[in-house]
């Protein structure tokens, strides 16, 4: 009997060895910004040195093979640097930003159908050319455009070209602590500017530039949405979920429903992902296995399955998450059909490698990270978890198998979820057991609805069936969401604690699967280190004392933070839980781990106009206030002006001497401009939240 040899993991998964230096190069380039000349020079030198190894004897090549490996990894590292540099639109010599000024005319192609918002229509635009001093120059670049909802305004359609004159604004973050980095997110989409256009600020040109393939995709997507809205009627919350479940259309989703799905750990159901493509893949495999010629031809089967999967991916909008899943399945299907012994980890790594070569900025995409961690968790841990319990009862065995998949996916994605969302849904196991079969049935029913859309009688019956199941799913999710302790919220997490938690999970998993005592001891040591780092961070937060003026457009929001408590001063809209508070204030409070809002803080003392918070003195002005000149001016740390008071800085400083003058987002821009000019004339330091983000004064 031939001896069986175990191939080392790193040799059976070569793409993992290629993926790691590629990721390292991408990260290094984004944060360090290496000039292209330097990285290219290193790349060609290393290629030349690697080529020179072929002139050495076999003995020396074997002796110095680790040097060859080092050269190869460094070359891949340089490729990662180049890909990141090349994808950054600011490095493109034809980027319009290199030539733009407020007097520049821009010719813009509308790159997608307009999306209706509350007060505007939002579209992505491609800047095809600019006109400077009467000369037209072809350019590259994207622009986020908002068209005003004025009466009789004609909103351009996909493929239209418009002419505008300046008025662009840089895309900025709100700048509030813990807030979403929107400017970086848009930079990864190669979009750094935005513009708001009223009726008289643009001209629709006669010539159009319409891609036939994308026109078909948009037409098909609109047809699907129209069919769903026609036959699934009665509740917009139900229709919104049905649209998201089939093609990932999220514009009609109810925010409270989405939050409930997120809180119960099943938000992946309403985001087109690997689960959806997996279900469609299973259906396609069954369908083509019934057709005589196709079931006997691997090539025909693979081509047809991949064609259907990619067509579905494009109709759903070809978003990053959809493309990620499509590429992942493409690699897995090809590996399974043509390379029977293909390592599934290698297939996953190859899909990630290809996606990062196409768009290195996907590395920062939360969906990209979570999907790969979840899939790796399922492949690595699902079988061992399933083997922990055995039963001959088929329904119970099926339930346990489904549970093992959910648990395995959660184990590797949990640290990332804690870092990004600071919460753990405690009911995720039960909600997934209920909603995955339900959503699977709904998905196939929706596909059937599309097939029978031309037969109204049948389509109406299917539509009512979908409505009932979707309503039931929403009802169950809402019930789980309302249960006490269904969500552990506001969990403290930092990049360091997240990395340590991942190392612990990986080492402990290896220790249990391999029954390795050394790994087990190492895992315990890592967990103790994680506990110390996490505990030290929490203790440090209990000593914090901060005065924060948030940047919220047309609103005033201020937190006085003392240890793990805070007192809020500002508009009443922020005192209730809602989108305004959750988006602007909650991320900062979670980051600071402040858990209790007080009606009063003992550390705040108010004497006439002066607020004293620990050792800091603050004056806040929102109405007409007269100041009498003083010889000995009152020294204060912060002078806050909000709600557009009719005051002059020159009058105020006759009585007080502020270290910093702060203007928040509730003030009009023209007034801020006036006060800014006064501060500059008086040589006073000032801070404008709409330009610089939240003002944070550390009181310690």
Give the topology, please:
Elements: H1 9-12, H2 14-32, H3 36-52, H4 58-63, H5 65-87, E1 105-110, E2 115-116, E3 120-132, E4 135-138, E5 142-148, E6 161-165, E7 169-170, H6 182-188, E8 191-197, E9 202-204, H7 212-231, H8 236-247, H9 255-263, H10 274-288, H11 292-295, H12 298-315, H13 320-338, H14 344-358, H15 366-386, H16 394-421, E10 423-425, H17 428-451, H18 456-481, E11 487-489, H19 495-514, H20 517-541, E12 545-549, E13 557-562, E14 565-570, H21 579-584, H22 586-592, E15 596-597, E16 604-607, E17 610-613, E18 616-621, E19 634-641, H23 649-652, E20 656-663, H24 669-682, E21 686-688, H25 689-692, E22 695-698
Parallel strand pairs: 5-8, 14-15, 18-19, 19-20, 20-21
Antiparallel strand pairs: 1-3, 1-6, 2-3, 3-4, 3-5, 6-9, 7-8, 10-11, 12-13, 12-22, 13-14, 16-17, 17-18
How would you sum up this structure, described in words?
The chain is 52% helix and 16% strand. The chain is an alpha+beta fold and 700 residues long. The chain folds into six domains: 79 residues; 115 residues, OB fold (Dihydrolipoamide Acetyltransferase, E2P); 198 residues, no CATH class; 61 residues, no CATH class; 47 residues, no CATH class; 154 residues, no CATH class. The strands form four sheets. Strands 1, 2, 3, 4, 5, 6, 7, 8 and 9 form a nine-stranded mixed sheet that branches. A six-stranded mixed sheet has the order 16-17-18-19-20-21. Strand 19, helix 23 and strand 20 form a beta-alpha-beta unit. The radius of gyration is 29 Å and the shape is globular.
